[in-house]
Amino acid sequence: MALRNLVVVGVGLIGGSIAAAVRTKGLAQTIIGIEPNAQSAAYALDQGLVDAVVSEVPADADLIALCVPSDLVAEWVLQLAEHDATVIDVGSVKAPIVEAVQAANPALSNFVPCHPISGSEKSGPTAANPALFNGCAVVLTPMPQTDNAKLAKAEDFWRQLDARVHVMPAADHDQALAVTSHLPHLLAFAFMQQVNDDHMPLTGGGFRDFTRIAAANEELWWRILRLNKEPVLTSAQRFIDDLQQLIETIEQNDTDRGLASLRRATEKKRDNE
Predict the structure, then answer these.
(1) Based on the domain organization, do 41 and 132 belong to the same domain?
(2) Are 18 and 130 in contact (CB under 8 A)?
């Protein structure tokens, strides 16, 4: 698939990485950015991530990537309802977006909800990486009215970026990501509350592995956690219950139960590596 005009709305980490990957692989004749941050826009132009920065989506775009916060996606999608292009997003939460679009325009068919499960604790176009999607999972959660040709175009686009494409209902995605992404971020943010400067000289690899994501953009993650509220709260409560059980084994010096709990966790991790 060769695109004439790819439009990237939001040239940050993910948008910049999409542009960089498309540029590297020669998948589009022209890459156009829409970026309200003047510094980010200038950097994207200077580094050749985009060919131009404009304020409105051109009429001749054939694929539009909405790389904006999840709670802004539906508004953009509805504004592009009559556009001929395939519209994709990269939001970490899907069901609220799908529900908002379907409620406002049940006939809208050019939107393919997407979530590339990749990223970094870094942000902005300076962190753009053309290899960011290599081997990563990208989840597509099409609506019942999503045009089949546009769905196929979105699938092909991500595969050309060397991603692994999965298709599932939006609610299933949100429940899974609450466990695999949103809860880990919540735990990392909470854990860092008890760390003070005196602890830092005594940290090692385990601390760095566990807390790396606590350096992520806090405003972005608050929006994600709030938007996926119910699945996150359910996952958090299950974690609290499991943690309490493990704490009780320590309090009671119950070696058999404690070791069994740790063993189940280590075996599950090793089986999935």
Answers:
(1) yes
(2) no
Other Cβ atoms closer than 10 A to 55: 7
**pLDDT value at residue 8:** 98
Helices 255-271 and 229-251, interaxial angle, to 10°? 140
189 plus 153 within the same structural domain: no
Q: Which of 29, 31, 37 is nearest to 51 (CA)?
A: 31
Are 82 and 60 in contact, with CB atoms under 8 Å apart? no
Helix (H) or strand (E) holding 137: strand 137-140
126-184 tens-digit pLDDT: 999 999 999 999 999 999 999 999 999 999 999 999 999 999 999 999 999 999 999 99
* Same-domain check for residues 80 and 210: no
Burial (CB < 10 A; 0-12, 13-18, 19+), residue 102, is: middle
Rounded to the nearest 5 percent, the helix, strand and coil shares of the chain are 55, 15, 35
pLDDT in tens, 1-18: 689 999 999 999 999 999
Write the CA distances from 31 to 14, 97, 134, 155, integer angstroms: 14, 26, 20, 19
21 and 130 co-located in one domain: yes
Q: Are 54 and 38 in contact (CB under 8 A)?
A: no
Q: Are residues 191 and 207 in the same domain?
A: yes
Dig out the tokens for 112 from the structure. Answer: 């393919």
Mean pLDDT value across the chain: 95
CA dihedral 161, 217, 56, 143 (to 10 degrees): 60
Six token digits for residue 16: 């910049």
Structural domain of 58: 3-168
Residue 57 and residue 142 share a domain: yes
User: Residues 150, 190: one domain?
Assistant: no
